[in-house]
Amino acid sequence: MKMEYNTASPLMIIPEYGRHVQKMAQYLLTIKDRKERTRGANTVIQTMTQVHPYAKDSEELRRKLWDHLYIITDYKLEVDGPYPKPLPELIEAKPKRMEYPVAAMRYRHYGKIISGLIKKAMEYKDSGEKDALVESIASLMKKAYMTWNQSSVNDQAIISDLTEMSGGKLILKDTTKLSNVYVPLNVKPVNTFNRKNKKNKNNRGKDKKRRHGGF
Asked: Once rounded to an integer, what is the mean pLDDT over residues 108-131?
């Protein structure tokens, strides 16, 4: 019996299914009877589901498997399958490159969300609802400012930026609420790992004293 090496075999089209599935799929092309070929194709699909045992009853998966079977046979397979044969130009087409949105922002540290909120607030008519929205925006601006600048911030600078970004249409009437916005500075995260190790060391020390008659 002649030894068959994978290095001498054709390249795997979809490696995840293994070489045996590829051979089965290629064998389907040699079956002349269409009904027999269709029956064989369903058998190959059942074998391919073993790669996805937890989703074998999924309609989306079954369609994907049939698409893969057509791809493995280079779209030459002609059977009465449950789904139409996919078009090679659609399957193999490369997606269009997505353009990254670039917007010129003078106050980048506030972010696009706050900029959008300011534009939305400018559409409101003067009312208590608009004043409350302006107060919320100013508070968010202060928090965003402190995220980038870990030091004290002058509330007047926030008010000035808000006025300039809105073209003078938004005015913070109650400045006391902005002064009450609390932003923790230089907060160090709690290292629970070190605290746990320290506790374990203390417990080991107590156990050692007990074994030697100590308390």
From this structure: 88
